[in-house]
Fold:
Amino acid sequence: MTRRFVLATANPDKAAEIRQILGPVVDLLPRPDSMGAVEETGATLLDNALLKARAVAAHTGLPAVADDTGLEVDSLGGEPGVYSARYAGPSATYADNVAKLLGRLSGREGRAGRRARFRTAAVAVWPDGRQEAAEGDVTGWIAPAPAGHGGFGYDPVFIPDEGDGRTFAEMVADDPAAKHRLSHRGRAFRLLAERIGG
Structure:
């Protein structure tokens, strides 16, 4: 049975990835252009995902799905975490954020000092207040330099433990499904689809 939800994200890269992951299981409608930005003021990834989904459900009168994702680096005390998308500032590009991260990790050689995990909180919210949530994570380490031309965000520097030594960006360039099978977002949204009966 296909379920119809409004996709709350305004990030086109993230929207494309979520559509690839959910495929025919969930029918995703685009976020209305009439909606303004939703400030992500939550203390956790789940808080931010719920803020976005609730705002979209209230605006459209339809069920909404949203996520928030953070990269957590052990040696940086969990940075950038909930600030991953704006690590280098409110108008930061993907390249800006990656450059700041690599700068913060300068001098840390080998995998031990560059251990990291991606976490995603994915939620579905209905206009009547019902909600479902799911989380996914993947561990790995931060490469010393970007590699690969696929994906987005920190994909060029994240090497998953369960992979074959390639960054997520290298995996996406060859086969996007390879990343989705291992990724935090793939795991979170597949679990969410099960919970909403998709």
The chain has six helices and seven strands.
